[in-house]
TrEMBL record:
It is an enzyme of class 3 (hydrolase). Keywords: Carbohydrate metabolism, Cellulose degradation, Glycosidase, Hydrolase, Polysaccharide degradation. The lineage of its organism: Bacteria, Bacillati, Actinomycetota, Actinomycetes, Micromonosporales. The active site is at residues 181, 378. This is Beta-glucosidase. One of its GO terms (biological process) is cellulose catabolic process. SUPFAM superfamilies: (Trans)glycosidases. InterPro entries: GH, GH_1_N_CS, Glyco_hydro_1, Glyco_hydro_1_beta-glucosidase. It comes from Micromonospora jinlongensis. GO terms for cellular component: cytosol. It holds the Pfam family Glyco_hydro_1. Substrate binds at residues 35, 136, 180, 311, 424, 431-432.
Length: 473
């Protein structure tokens, strides 16, 4: 025991304590089909909106595409072996819809299903819980040609695809996520157009958001019907939204962006209604005539869990008087002129402000909506990595994970039923409109040779998993 009279030998205030997570905490890593699989035209796969988009000049940095990506389709065994070395308890992956149901309608493609069966079996053989996301943005192109997510029928197609997957893999996959980040699909895909399919119409974006959620609800019902014991959830990307100052105008700007970014999805999914202020904010964009009786009941079909993707915080301010609204297509329909403010805090290579306390805040907020178990289904950072003597010492990424896990632990201490955490990402991959220029992986990928090199963050994460927590520092 230390002598209370003697001064501390070091500045204890700067030390970070060790932290232990609850028993059974599900430590994982996440990827998505189009970002890693490659094999774009192999074994019967047909184009998705991301194939079309990435092959359209000017859409993706440097003309990068997911044609080859990390060639995971052909390297499944080696990649699962790397996961096992990390000691992952779970692996969150997504299924490429046009690989298993080319064109998005009709019969399954047996070769496509076989790939996912092999993946799941390999995971199970290594004691890794498969966590399957049904839709991580790769809508079959013919469904986009028929109207895409702004068209109501796409929701029904998604339910059919769900049944096909539940029948094929439901005997061995316990955890199912319907959608990944519907905000991005709707508002980046159909609003600003920076994501596939690259359309730019605010009303279409709002319709897309609704039909994505309708598809989610129908998908949950399809899963329940086919596999009553499945654990089913949805993954939303959430941000705390702060006003840049305490003025009523800035506070109103924050309310508007919070409505579009967060409550547009949380309220229908978890409360069965759209927020009134959001509907009012959008009145110049849409009259919500696309919402039919019964939709919100379907959308709020009870879930088993909620997945939260967290990366950063938004700080916003009211439009500057006298300055005309930027006429570029916006992912904030009806609130295009709200200004996004930077605070001068450290940012990642995406330019996203690093804000670990925001993760705890976000988890507490979702818990205010629901008592369901929560999972962080994505959290991570892009940094410029350099390979030196075969090593990648990604101290910034490691520090990002460490800080966010401390915030996650704080949320657990506050009573949030957080049951697991998935690092984004297992390995470097195709970062959508940024192509291969942004690296989020714990495992470095050399895209010429396809050599994988675990970075320092991967080794550190393996130790976190082993001790079920963080060492004192
Ligand atoms: C999320 C996506 C994921 C990845 C990370 C960085 O929005 O779900 O695919 O691109 O951002």
């Amino acid at each position: 025991m230390s002598n209370p009279a003697s001064p501390p030998a070091v500045d204890v205030l700067d030390e970070r304590p060790g932290l232990t997570f609850p028993p059974g905490f599900l430590w994982g890593a996440a990827t998505a089909a189009y970002q890693i699989e490659g094999a774009a035209a192999v074994d019967g796969r047909t184009p998705s909106i991301w194939d079309t988009f990435s092959h359209t000049e000017g859409r993706v940095v440097a003309g990068h595409t997911g044609d080859v990506a990390c060639d995971h389709y052909h390297r499944l065994g080696d990649d699962v072996a790397l996961m096992a070395e990390l000691g992952l308890k779970s692996y969150r992956f997504s299924v490429s819809w046009p690989r298993v149901q080319p064109g998005g309608t009709g019969a399954a493609n047996p070769q496509g299903l076989d790939f996912y069966r092999r993946l799941v079996d390999e995971l199970l053989a290594n004691g890794i819980e498969p966590w399957l996301t049904l839709y991580h943005w790769d809508l079959p192109q013919p469904l986009e040609d028929a109207g895409g997510w702004p068209a109501r029928d796409t929701a029904a197609r998604f339910a059919d695809y769900t049944t096909l997957l539940a029948d094929a893999l439901g005997d061995r996959v316990r955890y199912w996520t319907t959608l990944n980040e519907p905000w991005c699909s709707a508002f980046l895909g159909y609003g600003s157009g920076v994501h596939a399919p690259g359309r730019t119409n605010g009303a279409d974006a709002v319709r897309a958001g609704h039909h994505l959620m309708l598809g989610h609800g129908l998908s949950v019902q399809a899963l329940r019907a086919a596999r009553p014991t499945a654990e089913v959830g949805v993954t939303v990307n959430l941000y705390p939204v702060d006003p840049a100052s305490d003025t009523p105008a800035d506070r109103d700007a924050a309310r508007r962006i919070d409505g579009l970014a967060n409550r547009f999805f949380l309220d229908p999914l978890l409360r069965g209604s759209y927020p009134e202020d959001l509907v009012a904010d959008l009145r110049t964009v849409t009259d919500f005539g696309h919402v039919r009786d019964g939709d919100l009941a379907t959308i709020s079909t009870p879930l088993d869990l909620v997945g939260v993707n967290y990366y950063s915080r938004h700080v916003v301010a009211a439009p500057t008087e006298g300055v005309a609204t930027d006429s570029a297509p916006s992912c904030w329909p009806g609130s295009e002129d709200v200004r996004f403010v930077t605070r001068g805090v450290p940012v990642t290579d995406m330019g996203w402000e690093i804000d670990a306390p925001g993760l705890a805040e976000t988890l507490r907020r979702v818990h205010d909506y629901t008592d369901l178990p929560l999972y962080v289904t994505e959290n991570g950072s892009a940094f410029v990595d350099s390979v030196v003597d075969g090593q990648v010492d990604d101290v910034d990424r490691l520090a990002y994970f460490d800080a966010h896990l401390r915030a996650a632990h704080e949320a657990i201490n506050d009573g949030v039923p957080l049951r697991g955490y998935f690092a984004w990402s297992l390995m470097d991959n195709f970062e959508w409109a940024w192509g291969y220029t942004k690296r989020f992986g714990m495992i470095h990928v050399d895209y010429d040779s396809q050599v994988r090199t675990p970075k320092s963050s991967a080794k550190w994460y393996a130790s976190v998993i082993r001790r079920n927590g963080l060492a004192a520092q």
